[in-house]
Design a protein that fits this description.
Elements (H helix, E strand, L loop, with lengths): L1 H9 L18 H42 L3 E3 L4 E2 L10 H4 L4 E3 L2 H7 L3 E7 L5 E5 L23 E2 L11 E5 L18 H4 L6 E5 L3 E14 L12 H14 L14 E7 L5 E14 L1
Parallel strand pairs: 7-10
Antiparallel strand pairs: 1-3, 2-11, 4-5, 4-8, 6-7, 8-9, 9-11, 10-11
Length: 290
């Protein structure tokens, strides 16, 4: 203190430093109560959302088990009719035509849901579902196979497609559920381990009139768009350009020959909540009338 006085005396312009006492924050009970109420509301909504998510998944899994019992799928080891076979014997086409057909009892499935139009199976995934179709691409985003409200939805065919005769590009949709139900396991096709297994590059499709095998030619992710889900084309040139674009997007170690004469199949699901899509394309290589 003496030093400060001396400094001020020698230097009158220098003023003593003063310190203000910090005011103590008053505890306001009402602020605490409001914060706790907001926290409780957020927690309640989060818990409810988690509960509903789990309940939807449980219902889907239960339906899956019921379908396996009531309409079990079976493999049929037959050659069938070859579709657009390539000239070269080095093509993987000749390897994949040995894949068996896959079929189910559609009478049983249609008793459960008259919207049933097909059954789809994909190796090394949980995709083993009856496929439904209705007059839009919205209903089965929020309804299960038994038509109950369910945010997990179901696997469905684009409303613009036909199976008799086959549309140029058959487009199938399903939610990418975290627990791998519906099209949740389509994400497997992006992994190196899945792609390193040659036997995985097939999709088996069955309808009430025929069984089919498709060879996969492109796997990729992309932001939501309408081009890859085209179901028909004005002419050969349009289909050729579409095939070229889909092949250029491919990120898997495959190089499959595809022409405008090939019937193609497209599987699409959500990659994430920001609108990304996981897409798989295949071409028809053999078919069999039922």
């Amino acid at each position: 203190m003496e030093k400060n006085k001396k400094d001020i005396k020698n230097n009158p312009d220098k003023q003593p430093v003063t310190y203000k006492k910090k005011k103590k924050l008053k505890f306001r009970p009402w602020v605490f109560v409001v914060c706790m109420i907001v926290f409780a509301i957020i927690l309640a909504f989060s818990s409810l959302g988690l509960y509903n998510w789990k309940e939807d998944n449980d219902k889907i899994e239960k339906l899956e088990e019921e379908i396996k019992v009531d309409a079990p799928a079976e493999e049929i080891e037959e050659q069938g009719e070859l579709v657009n076979p390539p000239d070269t014997k080095q093509s993987d086409y000749w390897y994949y035509i040995n894949v068996p057909f896959y079929e189910v009892d559609f009478n049983e499935l249609q008793k459960k849901n008259s919207d049933t139009v097909a059954f789809i199976h994909m190796e090394s995934s949980n995709i083993n579902y009856p496929v439904v179709q209705t007059g839009d691409n919205d209903y089965y985003l929020t309804h299960a196979f038994d038509k109950t409200k369910n945010d997990a939805g179901w696997v469905f065919l684009d409303y613009r497609d036909t199976l008799d005769p086959l549309s140029s590009n058959l487009v199938f949709y399903g939610h990418g559920r975290v627990n791998k139900t519906v099209f949740g396991s389509l994400k497997n096709a992006l992994s190196k381990s899945w792609q390193s297994n040659k036997d995985n590059y097939v999709i088996q499709l069955s309808t009430p009139k025929e069984n089919m095998v498709f060879q996969i030619f492109s796997i990729y992710t992309i932001e939501a768009e309408s081009y890859y889900i085209r179901t028909d084309f004005v002419n050969t040139e349009e289909k050729e350009q579409w095939i070229k674009t889909m092949k250029e997007r491919n990120t898997a170690p495959i190089d499959t020959e595809v022409s405008a004469q090939d019937t193609t199949i497209t599987l699409s699901t959500c990659e994430n909540n920001s609108g990304g899509r996981i897409v798989v394309h295949g071409k028809l290589i053999k078919r069999q009338a039922r």
